[in-house]
Write a structure and sequence with these properties.
16 helices, about 325 residues, Farnesyl Diphosphate Synthase
Length: about 325
């Protein structure tokens, strides 16, 4: 390769890296570049990549309700519920988490908007309040739209927002406890949006509540994956994440066991309900999940956490939808 060709090749690679870094910035992912546009900065604080499981949880809840029909109104109601669960309340949660984690992020991810100083504290607080009250207002609007006698979606929004607050904020700061904090996070990503979707199109019952709380133990495993990128900062600041408490290797095993065991448990419950086809599909989805766990995560969780999430977790979320469809079919 000539010197000119080599320079052109290097330029292409740098441009590609820059575009990838900008995309990570917009999604709120690790390895982002620093944006200057205030709206890009606000979006980064909201971490759009984290909205996906909550939006998906609404879909699973709508499926499990047995009451969703393919009409324009139901579709619009579902989209509004996704807006509440994802951009508004998940955005509130992520912005607030960055606000209270600014000292940790200064160690682990100094490019983040708050520790880098590219957005002021008053601007961050304003964003937190706007997203919080916006999410609760949309929840109340959905209750009115669905003619609920009891404002269940509003209560779920308020309750979920409170859990998010005590997860991030002192004095409780649940995330300081690896088990309790990760379960609170896991249930917020699985149970809460599932309840919202189910309550919007059906009647939320204790069977759904208990099943999704159990399923949220798999969410605990997902939450542990996010702890590996911040081990050093957690250790320095005394946060007892599972990788800090048990070490990298043991924590990785805890993570994959929690995910697999509870998804297999959901498959066993479907067999109990005589939903054998759905159970078979759900259990088959565990196979590629385990394969990618072995290929990537268990071998090097620090290096391969993002690669593992991209390759294995789609099978978990597909399994959630299968579970929702099976429960809706059994109504």
């Amino acid at each position: 390769m000539t010197e000119i060709e080599n320079k052109d090749y290097t330029k292409v690679e740098l441009d590609r890296d820059d575009k990838g870094s900008k995309a990570r910035q917009l999604l709120g992912m690790k390895g982002a570049t620093t944006a200057k546009n205030i709206w890009q900065i606000r979006l980064q604080l909201m971490k759009p990549i984290t909205w996906i499981p909550l939006i998906w949880g609404v879909v699973c809840g709508a499926a499990s309700s047995g009451g969703y029909v393919w009409s324009f109104e139901d579709f619009l109601m579902a989209l509004t519920c996704m807006l509440m669960s994802g951009p508004l309340l998940a955005g509130y949660t992520q912005t607030m988490n960055d606000f209270y984690d600014r000292d940790i992020d200064a160690i682990n991810e100094p490019y983040r908007p708050i520790p880098s100083g590219i957005i002021s504290i008053p601007q961050v607080v304003t964003q937190i309040l706007f997203l919080l009250f916006g999410g609760i207002a949309v929840a109340y609007g959905l209750d009115m739209w669905a003619n609920h006698e009891f404002p269940i979606l509003t209560c779920l929004a308020v309750g979920g927002s409170f859990v998010s607050y005590i997860y991030s904020a002192p004095p409780l700061k649940l995330k300081q406890n690896g088990w309790l904090g990760n379960y609170a996070l896991g249930s917020s990503y699985i149970a809460l949006p599932w309840w919202a979707g189910h309550a919007l199109f059906g009647e939320l019952n204790w069977t759904i509540v208990i099943l999704t709380l159990i399923y949220s133990m798999a969410g605990l495993g997902i939450a542990v994956v996010n702890d590996f990128k911040s081990v050093e900062g957690d250790r320095q600041l005394g946060l007892k994440s599972l990788p800090v408490m048990f070490g990298i290797t043991t924590a990785a095993w805890i993570c994959v066991i929690m995910i697999d065991v509870f998804q297999i448990g959901m498959g066993a419950y479907l067999i109990y309900l005589n939903q054998n086809l759905y159970a078979t599909i759900l259990l088959l989805l565990v196979i590629p999940q385990i394969t990618f766990q072995d290929m990537y995560f268990l071998r090097d969780p620090l290096k391969n956490d993002v690669k593992y999430q991209a390759s294995a977790q789609p099978f978990l979320v597909l399994g959630m939808l299968v579970m929702g469809l099976a429960l809706g079919h059994s109504v």
